[in-house]
Specification:
- This protein is an alpha/beta fold and about 400 residues long.
- The chain folds into three domains: about 1-40, no CATH class; about 45-205 and about 345-390, Medium-chain alcohol dehydrogenases, catalytic domain (Quinone Oxidoreductase, Chain A, domain 1); about 205-335, NAD(P)-binding Rossmann-like Domain (Rossmann fold).
- The protein is about 25% helix and about 25% strand.
- The protein has 13 helices and 19 strands.
- The strands form five sheets. Strands 5, 6, 7, 10, 11, 18 and 19 form a seven-stranded mixed β-sheet that branches. The chain has a six-stranded parallel β-sheet with strand order 14-13-12-15-16-17.
- Helix 9 links the parallel strand 13 (about 245-250) and strand 14 (about 265-270).
- The longest helix is centred in the last third of the chain and has 14 residues, at about 340-355.
- The two termini are about 20 Å apart.
- The structure holds zinc ion (ZN) (2 copies).
- The site of one zinc ion has 9 residues, from helix 5.
Length: about 400
């Protein structure tokens, strides 16, 4: 560890540094730190929970974020949701990672400073950050509000992606005290909505909202949702709010009552694939959030011929076994979907605020994160863990 880094860490341990306004106010140790490196003095100090290797076990880590640029917003993070993707990525399930890495892409907090070109936000506003923090901004996909599909491959995801502006060399996510993000990638959160309720909308919410909206559902259509965890439970609430009949499929019996309370017409406990047969060709559309390999054909066959089935859960290595016998007979269109663009992310936050749609969350402290991850893996989350980041 370099002297500078050691010092900056001590600064935090001593509680001597506070980020206030656009200036990083440093205590005794911080002054020495600022003098030791001109550049480092302008960095925003942050503390978080990071994975240090692919065991994925998280522990405290102090680090620096880039200095606030003219187009940037500095957010004091209040809450950060736990997404299954955090676990997959930190454990190397989707490819090798650089460590230390701070996960978290369901970020909600308060704006504490803005760059001089920023027009959408001011100090004190409530703001959120989801799965991405930058893109080229000029290609057709970016211009169409689909920044997650930047044609120039410049989509910068919120953690673990190479980022020249980041002192650690990669983007660092929301299990932390603050974040510096380009204005375009910051979402307004209406003050009528609690920040802890807004956080899960920024990944779990938008990931299911986007394909639901694109599928052009009509009131009264029958929609299937498979996998009722963080994503699935919000999908039920969103679909019900859009006026469709929801059929929710779960492999966890104890979730049945909750599912009905979320407004689903039916909750189907799938203890054997035989249970699915009664629903063959009955649904207009279906989404699966299941993040592990499973019998996809058996579920897709519940959709009416020429209807669509969207997979949003991403298993280890992204791989799903798809037996084509199911698809040549069921004539269902299979597709995948990746989060949603910035305009649509703003849309879902506004939609949920207006319709009072809130995820079912369980607030935890930072020292409970590792335990919460095990619960997510063991399907014991009810339904989204949200970290109170003041405890980091
Ligand atoms: Zn996520
Ligand atoms: Zn682009």
């Amino acid at each position: 560890m370099s002297e500078e880094k050691k010092l900056s860490r001590e600064t935090f341990i001593n509680g001597a540094a506070t980020v206030l306004g656009s200036v990083v106010i440093l205590g005794k140790a911080g002054k020495a730190f600022a003098q030791s490196s001109k550049k480092a003095g302008k960095y925003v100090l942050s503390k978080g929970y990071a994975a240090k290797n692919k065991s994925g076990k998280l522990s405290k880590w102090s680090f620096e974020r880039r200095e606030l640029g003219d187009d940037d917003v500095l957010i004091d993070i209040k809450f950060s949701g736990i997404c299954h993707s955090d676990i997959h990525q930190m454990r190397g399930h989707w490819g090798p990672q650089q460590y230390p890495q701070v996960p978290g892409h369901e970020i909600a907090g308060v704006v504490i400073s803005v760059g001089k070109n920023v027009t959408k936000f001011k100090t004190g506003d409530h703001a959120g950050v989801g799965c991405m923090v930058d893109s080229c901004g000029t290609c057709e996909s970016c211009k169409a509000g689909e920044e997650q599909h930047c044609d120039n491959n410049a989509t910068l995801f919120t953690y673990g992606y190479p980022d020249k502006t980041s002192p650690s060399g990669i983007t660092q996510g929301g299990y932390s005290s603050n974040i510096v993000v380009k204005e375009h990638f910051v979402i307004r959160i209406p003050k009528s909505m609690r920040l802890q309720d807004a956080a899960p909308l920024l990944c779990a919410g938008i990931t299911t909202y986007s394909p639901l909206v694109k599928s052009n559902l009509k009131k009264g259509d029958k929609v299937g949702i498979a996998g009722i965890g963080g994503l699935g439970h919000i999908a039920i609430k969103l679909a019900v709010a859009k006026g469709v009949e929801v059929y929710a499929f779960t492999t966890t019996k104890s979730k049945v009552e909750d599912i009905l309370s979320f407004g689903a017409k039916e909750a189907i406990y799938v203890d054997s694939l035989e249970k699915l047969k009664a629903y063959n060709k009955t649904l207009d559309y279906m989404i699966s959030t299941i993040p592990y390999n499973y019998n996809l054909g058996a579920y897709a066959s519940l959709v009416k011929p020429y209807g669509s089935f969207t997979q949003v859960g991403v298993p280890v290595g992204g791989e799903l076994t798809l037996n084509n016998f199911a698809f040549i007979f069921n004539r269902v269109n299979y597709n995948g979907s990746l989060i949603g663009g910035i305009p649509q992310t703003q849309e879902i936050v506004d939609f949920c605020a207006k319709n009072k749609i809130y995820p079912q969350i369980e607030l935890i402290t930072a020292n409970e994160i590792n335990q919460a991850w095990e619960k997510v893996v063991n399907k014991e989350a009810r339904y989204r863990f949200v970290i109170d980041t003041s405890t980091i």
